[in-house]
Amino acid sequence: MTKEVIHLGIEAKETTFTTHQIANILGLSPRRVQQLAEEGVLVRASKGKYIAAESVQNFIRSLQTKEGKAEVDFFEERAKHEKAKREKAELHLAVMKGTLHRAEDVEWVMDDMIAAFRTKVLSLPSKLAPQLLGKTNQGEVLGMLTREVSEALTELSDYDGFLFNNKNENFIGEVDADDGHDNQ
Predict the structure, then answer these.
(1) Which residues share a beta bridge with 44?
(2) What is this structure's pTM?
(3) At 97, is the secondary structure helix, strand, or coil?
(4) Taking residues 67-83, what's their average pLDDT?
(5) Dihedral of the CA atoms 6, 12, 16, 19 (nearest 10)?
(6) Maximum Cα–Cα distance for the chain, whole Å?
(7) Res 167: pLDDT
């Protein structure tokens, strides 16, 4: 702690307070004044006397730097709690509206869509081979291949948001069953 004494136009070392005077000024008991002097916060000029300016300034600094020792502010903690409850409710509502999806739901739906696409693409050779057998017209072969590949790609483009919502409804049902406090 840096000690910078502000001079008030009088010599700081000349002005002293007795234990009772400084206790009254700082709103402390005489015993607490003695404890602060032992801790080095209040500066003794002699037995029962304290250097006024330096002691008051040190006392103010000690109050300002008590970071970890401050009491919990009930209203601040209550506000944080209410904010967290509101954010949780907003997220829950977004899931219910289908505008927010859990990662597990997205993974499940996407895995399902990609598996169906993979199956469709892997079936193309066995499906097209008999049809292409003996075809010599390049345009006809290209048309058949393009049509089947497009049909397979349609599988991916047929995104259905209700798939996510169905998974969300299952999740919401689980949450509501597990925790009756979600809607508070």
Answers:
(1) 50
(2) 0.42
(3) helix
(4) 76
(5) 30
(6) 117
(7) 62
User: CA–CA distance from 48 to each of 16, 62, 149, 180 (Å)?
Assistant: 10, 21, 97, 63
The conformation of residue 183, written as its DSSP 8-state character, comes to T
Read off the tokens for 5.
Answer: 């004494």
- Return all residues near 77 (Cβ < 8 A) that are at least 6 apart: none
Question: Does residue 37 surpass a pLDDT of 60?
Answer: yes
What is the full DSSP assignment across 59-79? HHHHHHT--TTPPP-HHHHHH
The rounded distance, in Å, linking the Cα atoms of 162 and 55 is 71
pLDDT in tens, 76-107: 888 999 999 999 999 988 877 878 887 887 88
- The 3-class secondary structure across 108-149, one letter per residue, is HHHHHHHHHHHHHHHHHHHHHHHHHCCCCCHHHHHHHHHHHH
Q: Is 51 helix (H, G, I), strand (E, B) or coil?
A: strand
Give the span between the Cα atoms of 7 and 111, in whole angstroms: 75
d(CA 153, CA 120): 9
Q: How far is the C-alpha of 164 from the C-alpha of 105, rounded, in Å?
A: 6
What CA–CA distance (Å, rounded) separates 96 from 49?
70
Q: Which among 54, 13, 11 is positioned nearest to 36, based on CA atoms?
A: 54
Structure tokens at 182: 């979600």
CA 184-74-27 angle, to 5 degrees, is: 170
